[in-house]
Amino acid sequence: MGVQGEIYIGGDSLARGYLNRTALTAERFISNPFSDVPLARLYKTGDLARYLPDGNIEYLGRIDNQVKIRGFRIELGEIEAVLSQHPDVRQAAVIAREDVKGDKRLVAYIVPQESAPTVSELRCFLTEKLADYMIPLTFVLLESLPLTQNGKINRHALPALDNAQPQASFVAPRNELERQLAQIWSDILNVQPVGIKDNFFNLGGHSLVAVRLMVKIEQEFGKTLPIATLFQFPTIKDLANHLTISKNAPSSANLVAIQPKGNKTPLFCVHPVGGDVLCYADLAHHLGDTQPFWALRSLGIDGECEPLTQIEDMAATYIKALQTIQPQGSYQLAGWSMGGAIAFEMAVQLVASGHKVSLLALIDSYAPNPKFKGSLEIDEAILLADWLKNLSESNLAVSVSVEELRLLEPHEQFNYILEQAKKDGLLPKEIEQKQASLLFQVFKANRLSLHSYIPQPYSGRITLFCASDTLNAETQDPTHGWRQLAAGGIDMHNIASNHFSIMRSQVLPKLIKAELTHLK
Questions:
Q1: Which of 114, 116, 241, 498 is most buried, by the most CB atoms less than 10 A from its CB?
Q2: Packing angle between helix 433-452 and helix 410-423, nearest 10 degrees?
Q3: Is the CB of residue 442 less than 8 Å from the CB of residue 301?
Q4: How far, in Å, CA of 6 to CA of 246, rounded?
Q5: Are residues 139 and 25 in the same domain?
């Protein structure tokens, strides 16, 4: 019920196959495993649907019009439908192109009305209606769309790109440093030209691209920058200034100003197990530029100090950091995945020291269960396999056997996982062993700290956002184990997503915004 799947058709009225197309018939007309009738067949329609609670079937689109980009399954027709609502768009077609291997991106082809819309107008229009990962990176204006003989859009005939992006406010680099950075951005993002006011995220930047960018900057300029730097300096102009003026450095090593403006009570979000906070980019964007949004990333992720190894120590350190922004008052805390456990401990410590916590939002976060701590010995092989799975942003098992990994020497285990991550496109090929080792050491410290953490009851109320595709298998508890720890009760919100896609859900920002508004 509610699970998306393909429609299969069977029964007496089913055709025998495709005329004179044996291979296609064998592919689409398969044996019916549900029938006792000899030679009974099912037809794979290529249509997607799901059962509704009332027994009806909801049509969701075509399989061949669905793509997967950075782990997110996207229905291209949904983007086309929204584009067609723009008053200056007559026709629209959206496809996923991979002109550079491993860099798949959405491209929208537009046939305008009499007045052609600008790229910025189209992007702003879509941003109001779609999740950020569904916004095409490139927009191409055409006089007409190519059609097949039966009048459908011929997607294979849509023209190739020259990667040129028309910009209404393009500002060229003014000095050698800005020119070098513009060239790096252009090479990594596969976009040109790149102006000094162009925003990294608006050009299609995401976590993997950000890692590649920082690796390249270290190679070119000899300076190691955390990925979170892109929140504070998202344009070439700002980043160039940061590289040359040390006083622009963050006031706290682990406090990141994702959106520091606004006069509302700040929202502080805590990093997941990977240690960085790029995952909160979409959430901060959707909450708007009037909601101050700060994030707390792991110490040690930049290699300047050792990572913390206890949740209690992380919470105490992060409280000191956030109090440089908000010394007193009612605090609003949130955290995704492991970040929820840290935010929980922060709330416990804040309340114990006499402060008030008006919001504790846990986003698909699981309470550590002491009952199961002694039943699982965590060794380096398990940690490396978990790290690879976390990099893949997948709940599915990755192509690594822990048993086979244990047959290797410790340094061989890491090298094997690193090569696997590069091979699968989870880490950039340019990343060096030292840089990758820093990422793993932070993950390892966080993973082990969560395993050893024994949470104490919290006197306040918890707001819990749960992904509908996940359930705590250990307890079968829909509250992910938090019920017995929340003395003030739990407000539950179920969101149609999985553990990773919940951070890209359009529903999550609306629910959190409602909670924040309710508290004002």
A1: 498
A2: 110
A3: yes
A4: 56
A5: no
Using DSSP, state whether 167 is helix, strand or coil. coil
d(CA 346, CA 66): 41
Cα(93)–Cα(70) distance, integer angstroms: 21
Residues 461 and 425 in one domain: no
Total number of domains constituting the chain: 5
Q: Tell me: the pLDDT tens digits for 409-466?
A: 888 899 999 988 888 778 877 788 888 898 999 999 999 999 889 999 999 999 999 9
- Identify the CA nearest to 515 among candidates 358, 405, 309: 358
- Closest-CA residue to 334 (of 364, 361, 294): 361
Q: What is the pLDDT of residue 177?
A: 85
Arithmetic mean of pLDDT, 325-338 = 92
Quote the domain boundaries for residue 406. 375-452
482 and 353 part of one domain: yes
Q: Is the pLDDT of residue 168 over 70?
A: no
Confidence of residue 474 (pLDDT cuts 50, 70, 90): very low
The stretches of 236-376 forming alpha helices (DSSP H) are 236-244, 281-287, 311-322, 338-352
Same-domain pairing of 359 and 266: yes
| Inside any domain, residue 165 | no
DSSP string, 299-311: TTTTSSSPPP--H
Burial class of 153 by CB neighbour count within 10 A (0 to 12, 13 to 18, 19+): middle
For residues 97 and 182, membership in a common domain is answered with no
Edge-to-edge strands, sheet with 103-112: 89-100, 103-112, 138-141
Q: Is 499 left (phi over 0), alpha (psi -120 to 50) or beta?
A: alpha
CATH number of 39's domain:
2.30.38.10
Q: Which residue has the higher pLDDT, 59 or 323?
A: 323
Give CA–CA dist 320/327, Å, rounded: 9
Q: From 249, 269, 291, give the residue that closes a domain.
A: 249
pLDDT of residue 100: 61
Do the beta carbons of residue 90 and residue 111 sit within 8 Å?
yes
80 and 126 part of one domain: yes
Q: CATH code at 475?
A: 3.40.50.1820
pLDDT tens for each residue of 478-510? 888 898 899 889 999 988 888 888 887 778 888
Q: Which of 413, 430, 452 is the last residue of a domain?
A: 452
To which H or E segment does residue 464 belong?
strand 462-467
- Report the alpha-carbon distance of residue 427 to residue 490 in Å, rounded: 38
Residues 282 and 360 grouped into a single domain? yes
| CATH number of the domain bearing residue 228 | 1.10.1200.10
DSSP state of 87: T
**Are 459 and 433 in a shared domain?**
no
